[in-house]
Design goal:
The protein is mostly helical and 164 residues long. It has two domains: 117 residues, no CATH class; 41 residues, no CATH class. The protein is 45% helix and 9% strand. A three-stranded antiparallel sheet has the order 1-2-3, with no helix packed on it. A hairpin with a 4-residue loop joins strand 1 and strand 2.
Length: 164
């Protein structure tokens, strides 16, 4: 993992290019075709499916791949969290479809190789009350968009448990 600080721009950059390259090579995926998506929407992973397959899937190899991906997800790749944790549920009895899902994550990492996590300083002096108000308005806006869980944040905070 590499951490770079750019004080002039107010940035901290976290990148795991070397680690990603290492795990792609370890699991023979360094020359794989890339994928722009993490998961195939047409594939439904389940425990029943892995019981039916009863292939000679190498459980240890699967667990090592999941462990490597979990480390990457927790340090600098939050975009792969959901897919990795979904595959992690089948650690005890992985089937061929589960291994295919893990390989899809590797192909996604191949596609976005070189991506970095950048933390940007937004403001030099921060007024917490203004920041909380702005965040509340932003969350309220997103929650009211069509297709998103429709829950409105009340304008009157008199019933808020934090005020008591």
């Amino acid at each position: 993992m590499r951490i770079e600080q750019r004080q002039d721009k107010g940035q901290i950059i976290v990148d795991q290019d070397e680690y990603i390259n290492k795990i792609l090579k370890k699991f023979n995926m360094s020359d794989c075709n890339s994928s722009s998506t993490l998961m195939d929407l047409n594939v439904k992973l389940s425990k029943i499916e892995s019981m039916k397959e009863k292939t000679d899937m190498d459980r240890i190899l699967y667990q090592k791949a999941i462990g490597s991906l979990l480390y990457a997800a927790q340090i600098s790749r939050p975009d792969i969290n959901y897919a990795v944790y979904t595959c992690n549920r089948y650690n005890n009895n992985p089937g061929q479809s589960h291994w295919s899902a893990v390989k899809r994550i590797f192909r996604y990492l191949q596609e976005i190789r070189g991506a970095k996590l950048i933390f940007q300083r937004i403001m030099k002096s921060m007024n917490i009350a203004i920041l909380i108000e702005e965040m509340t308005q932003m969350i309220s806006y997103w929650l009211c968009l069509p297709g998103v869980w429709n829950h409105r944040i009340p304008k009157d905070n008199s019933h808020n448990s934090f005020d008591k």
